[in-house]
């Protein structure tokens, strides 16, 4: 018997086979935000004090960053962590919504209290 331990990525539950991994959604959101601002990976890495290879791995969905790393990267992008979470929530709602269910849309963060508005 081998002493090696194999770590497998758990498969999504059978009732939600297409659920994306959170790290992929976060990476996509970070890349979109960076590109919208016309910044290079190197510029964001330097401004956030996160290594360029690690930031690249995050954007590609290969690493799950800590909340501290996410906050540093979003500060470098002149955004709030709430902006990232809102973007990820919006994308997840669109991906995970049943075909016959109305899509939820987020109320702008300036509106209080936060709410989801369902389209009819």
UniProtKB/TrEMBL annotation:
CDD domains (alphabetical): HTH_XRE (cd00093)
InterPro entries: Cro/C1-type_HTH (IPR001387), Lambda_DNA-bd_dom_sf (IPR010982), TransReg_Diox_bact_type (IPR050807)
UniProt cross-references to Gene3D superfamilies, sorted A to Z: lambda repressor-like DNA-binding domains
Superkingdom: Bacteria
SUPFAM superfamilies from the UniProt entry: lambda repressor-like DNA-binding domains
GO terms under cellular component: cytosol
A Gene Ontology molecular function term of the record: DNA-binding transcription factor activity
Descriptive protein name: Helix-turn-helix transcriptional regulator
